[in-house]
Design goal:
Two copies of one chain form a homodimer. In chain A, about 55% of the residues lie in helices and about 10% in strands. Chain A has about 500 residues and is of the alpha/beta class. Chain A has a five-stranded parallel β-sheet, with helices on both faces. In chain A, strands 7-8-6-9-10 form a five-stranded parallel β-sheet, sandwiched between helices. In chain A, helix 5 runs antiparallel to helix 6 and helix 6 runs antiparallel to helix 16. The relative contact order of chain A is 0.12. Chains A and B meet through helix 1, helix 2 and helix 11 of A and helix 1, helix 2, helix 11 and strand 7 of B.
Chain lengths: ~500, ~500
């Protein structure tokens, strides 16, 4: 696989000086066009030590306008990073739309090295690569241009390079004992690299293998690949826009369609008559709050995090249910995140980014009042997301939640259900209670008119995202007391199970 | 001081139920008006344990619209937090304009407890309170409404409260051995509290002492104080706006004035003929890059951070100087932060917030290509900041930089100076070099016309912010080689001194 990158490719100084000025202008122009585009560019450098990963990243930074480009390199994980899922540190650093983010080694580094050192067996290595693939696909599907460069040196060339660096007082520090150790393991590294590249070179995130021995050759090669990549992606974006305009009309058509969902939905199958007496309620509330308190203090000390997602009809009682949970917790240990309209920084990233940034440290409880499911509910029904986007979201959400659960987080997703009649009664009551009237807006009445569409969307959502690792909890909510206790009890049960 | 808060204030259930609905409506209305305002509300709860800090915070959260209110409580500092200046964790969490942030104990907690435990002597305690005062003044001057509540209980009342909590299975965990230990130290705590409150109760950030024994009384008292605070501040804002409109015209008048600055400015006094031969340059460059590399690896291992600020005329060579530093560093250890226009999240915070968020972990180098000094340069001259705002900025910047330096960070501020003639020559050269032409905009020519105003502004800036802890380094930049070496050498010298 790497044979073509061990040919001794070279570019003469004259040719270099001839080609660089033009390349720089074109890169700068591409960058200007990119700024208006609604996708980010992700450039990843990895490869053989000494093949110029860092130097080439610096070169791009020098050639291009530094205001719209950012370079990230990663050292050992910090305590805060280790407390979140493995990819979290990269999620946070993703460039916003219109910008270029350069990542040194980044997400490939760990599985690759751990495989060579035998810390991951074959199967675990495949799993790690699968997670990366899912991650890159998700970004690519959202529009990101991902260009991955494998900077290569043959075994002899690497030896030569290390020896040369060691002689140079400014660069000698770059060659460590570990580098020489790795050099002796060259073949094992190359095996793992081949496998990595084969498995993760996909259409929207291809690998380019670059021979790294000659500084000028590798610089031009990377610069030109990047330029072509951006140009091609910008041209695609123009086409996509045209298609989306056409598709938008189509999606609205179906979403507004004749509501042909005669089958019973999961919500319609719920028994809304379930209830609790005032007395049972007081007793249960006290019991489960006390229990939750004990359980959470244990979870806190064992660094087990909890993420609760609350979705449900307007006026279903999400806030009330949340306020029955929080008194059992220490204020330092939980956060309630009400999801409002995204800020401009949030809009300029993948739609999951604004949730990633709220992930808490280990041992904490994070409560989302509405969540990432907005993508397949309101955004679907109001047409804010195209059909392609919301359909894709199911898989993206599943993979995001899988990362949370596999990291050891207890994730519970509640849909609080009320009947259409109960909702009307509550709307009316809100109108009449002075300090609750603000909760009721025109939009609530409008959403109500689309009840059947939401009903169908919830049905799809539960079908697509109620996974073994992260099942939905459907809560019968016509009786507030019953609903609150069910929410608390479920939380206690799940925590208890996790802490066993 | 606390005698009036040990009177056994009570509100009957009937009165409470009568007053609460109206208070809630008014709070919600105030919150709606607030959303349009260009200032945040900061509510701080501290006080005697068991006096209802957390409960009252929860109550506000319940009464108000949770989308525009956020509560923060703090546990032990994380490794990442400990690596930044003491107030960093709060800086990051400040609410944006139009929102309410509730802080439990927060910045008062540490100095207060450390004083009682004798870890801070009198003088150190005063210093800590001074830092808090400066911080709160800065926020208040920027418009923030700060309301601080001391939740109080007499010694007997506290004992009674603890005993009652211990009997309740849901709340028994809230009373710890430490609480009883502190109860025995009640008088020491009260002494420190009195001093804290006396010293830090200022007009724009007053303390309200609330008797905490009766749940209903304290809830109403806090709610009403908050409501009045927001209402009063909103009324002030209307007046300010009118005054600012008038003042704006005045400021523009003076900024555009007759340029009556006949005195020699610091920049005019620089010797722009300083230069280095090509040969001297190569040798010095190599020498200092190698030296920097060694020094920084030492700094990295000793967790000493470096912050470099680059300011200077357009085309002065900031980028070139930065690119002579970075090759000596490991890509994982530095970040270049080019300062572009603020995002909307950034605009909705104090103007220093967008720099706070970039502070690196311990042992790293952060290079700002332009910086917070924009406030007293471009924002002053273009009238983006009012005269009051940019004049105030000197003190704010000094205090910000002091926090950095006192935390052990090496801070170097470079102004790279070129003569007006040299600038013109460089502009012309850029026009002629195809891949540099993008660097030159209409704005550069416009800024050039305001050379004298900038000259005067830089003179003021250096005068006001060249402190003993954080002096300005003025770099003679007509000769690029000389400038680059001076930048590198200064960095090496300062690092060497710090690591001694």
């Amino acid at each position: 696989m790497f044979r073509t990158a061990e040919l001794g490719q070279k570019v003469s100084k004259a040719e270099y000086n001839d080609r660089v000025p033009d390349l720089r202008i074109q890169l700068l122009e591409a960058q200007q066009d990119l700024r208006q585009a609604n996708f980010p560019v992700i450039v990843l450098f990895t490869g053989v030590d000494g093949a110029g990963k860092g130097e080439t990243a610096n070169l791009l930074q020098e050639w291009m306008d530094p205001r719209w480009i950012v370079t990230r390199a990663y050292a050992r994980k910090s305590e805060e990073e280790a407390e979140r899922p493995g990819l979290w540190r990269y999620w946070r650093d993703l460039p916003r739309n219109g910008q270029v983010g350069i990542f040194l080694s980044a997400w490939y580094s760990r599985p690759y090295i751990e495989r060579v050192y035998g810390k991951l067996n074959r199967e675990q290595f495949e799993e790690a690569l699968d997670r990366i693939l899912t991650f890159e696909r998700m970004l690519a599907n959202d529009g990101a241009l991902i260009l991955k460069f494998w900077m290569h040196l043959g075994k002899k060339a690497q030896e030569k390079r290390f020896k040369k660096l060691e002689k140079d007082p400014l660069h000698a520090w770059r060659v460590t004992k570990k580098d020489w150790k790795h050099w002796k393991m060259y073949d094992e590294f190359i095996d793992a690299a081949e496998h990595t590249i084969m498995k993760t070179s996909i259409g929207r995130a291809p690998w380019t293998i670059v021979e790294g021995a000659d500084e000028r050759y590798r610089g031009l090669k990377v610069g030109e690949t990047l330029l072509n990549g951006i140009r091609r992606r910008l041209a695609e974006a123009d086409i996509e826009e045209a298609v989306n305009d056409a598709e938008g009309a189509y999606v609205l058509g179906t979403a507004n369609g004749d509501g042909a969902t005669p089958r019973t939905t999961v919500l319609q199958a719920l028994d809304t008559t379930k209830s609790l007496s005032k007395d049972e309620y007081s007793k249960s509330l006290e019991k489960y709050q006390a229990k939750l308190n004990l359980l959470h203090r244990k979870a806190r000390s064992e660094k087990v995090s909890v993420i609760l997602v609350f979705e449900g009809w307007d006026a279903a009682g999400k806030g009330g249910a949340i306020r029955r949970i929080t008194p059992a917790l220490d204020a330092r240990d939980y956060q309630v995140i009400p999801i409002a309209a995204p800020t401009d920084e949030e809009k300029a990233h993948h739609y999951l980014w604004r949730f990633w940034r709220h992930l808490s440290r280990a041992g904490r409880v994070t409560i989302f009042d509405r969540s990432w499911y907005g993508r397949v509910l309101v955004e679907r029904i109001e047409g804010f997301a195209s059909e392609t986007e919301w359909r894709r979201a199911y898989a993206e959400i599943n993979s995001f939640e899988r990362a949370l659960v596999e990291h050891g987080i207890v994730l519970i997703k509640y849909w609080i259900h009320i009947s259409k009649e109960e909702q009307e009664a509550r709307f009316r009551a809100r109108e009449e209670t002075s300090y609750k009237a603000w909760k009721l807006t025109e939009e609530d009445w409008r959403n109500r008119e689309r009840w059947d569409e939401y009903d169908a969307a919830v049905n799809d959502m539960v079908g697509q995202t109620s996974t073994r690792l992260a099942p939905w909890v459907l809560v019968e909510g016509d009786d507030k007391r019953y609903a609150r206790v069910k929410v608390l009890k479920t939380l206690c049960d799940r925590l208890e199970e996790r802490l066993k």
